[in-house]
Structure formats: C-alpha cells, structure tokens
Design brief:
Helix content is about 50%, strand content about 15%. It has a five-stranded antiparallel sheet. Strands 6-7-8 form a three-stranded antiparallel sheet, with no helix packed on it. Strand 6 and strand 7 form a beta hairpin.
Length: about 250
Amino acid sequence: MGCCKYNKKSYLFYVIATIIFTIGFCLSVISIATCSFVGQDGQNESGQFSGFGLFWFESPGVLGGQCFFFDWNSPVGNVPYWTGRNMNAARICACIASFFAFCMTCLLWLGLCCGCLHGKVMRQVLALFSFCLMALFSGIWAVYGSFTCRGGCSFSYGSWCALFTMIAWFVTGTILCCTPSSHHDDAVSKKEAAPVVAAAAPAEGESNVSVDKVENEDGSIVTKTTTTNPDGSKTVEETTETPLFDAVVDEKV
C-alpha cells in the first residue's frame, strides 16, 4: 500500500491538506455557479435583479433566490454584463483556476493512495501550485469593478465562498511546505549525514599490520611485515623467498 510509505505524522498532514484543498475546490465551484455572488446595492435599469453571479442574475423580492440568464425588461442593460472586460476577466480567471484545482484535487487523493507524494520536491511543487491557484482565482474579485456594479455591490453568498476558497488553498500550500519528512526523506538525510569511515583505519584495540615486498635483482623477494600494537610498540618480521629454479640448480650441484 502506498500509504505505508508515510510515517503517521507525515500522513496526517497530507490528509488534512488534501481535505482542506478539496473543500476549497468545492467552494470555488459554488462561487462560480451561484447567481448570488454579489448583492446589488444601487438601482439597476429594470429592478428585476437584486444580485448576480458570473453567469446568472438573482431575482428580487418574493422571487429571491431564483436565477435567470437574461433580463428581458432591459435588453440593453445585459450587454455590459456579458461583454464587460472586468466580468469576462473574472469568469476566465475563476474557471481556469477551478479547472486546475480539480486536477490537483485528483492528484492529491491519488497521491495518498499510491504514495507518490512522499518526496520533498513533490510537496514543494504542489505547495507552489496551490499558491498560484489562489492568486489566479483572486481575479474573480474583478466583478466588483464591473459596469454592472457601478451603483455599488456588497458581499453575498458567492463572495464568501470565493474568500474561503482562497483561504483554503493558502492553508493547503502552507501545510504542504511544513509537512515533516517521511521515511524516505529521513533515510536520505541519515545516509547523507553518516560519517565516512576510512576503510584502512584499524578498529580500536586491534593491531595494524602493514606488508612491504621488495624484489631483488637475483629474483629473491624480501617481505617485511610491520605490526603496530595497540600500546604503540612495533614488531618487524623479515623473510626472504628464493626462486624455485635457483633452489633446484643448487641442489643438483
């Protein structure tokens, strides 16, 4: 199981970050789809809507809460709503951010199941992506600068959802940045921090033996063995090896 690649504390942080980001994604969809993103404070041409969202108008009075696409009582008044620069900027930014948030939501849940989020680099990339989505989604506030809001607009249901969406994605990025290292990261850190021990260094309390061999012109080999004892004293042994051919010739003579 991929979840086994996390330690308990690290896994808990991932679960919390994933849940918070998912909540933020759901709130972003609501803020885009609602017809009550802002409340209309001033007078509009027809008086047929008390608020509006990115794609809908909200009916006033006893019909409050009902949504409609087009205000037939004032066809001209619909033109700035659908063609205004600020309204379109808000729609584009919010929809793009919400689409990529959906992709990241799937990746976070998939990562929890497969264990592909244990790397420190991956966590930092996801955290940066979460911050970028928050910044992109902030373009939705361009609604308040639109022509339709010239008479004044106030926070409504959708605006609160958008605000908490940005907070959720900011918290998600912060959690991913602060997530403690998993087993994989701990193992790499310990491996990098482990001291390098010289292979030739003798263990404490043991003798150090060095062997030097010298070959003479007559073919004999002189082996000098030096033993360094733990108390600092040295013992030197020297042996001479005679070639087998010379030994046989001497024996025959």
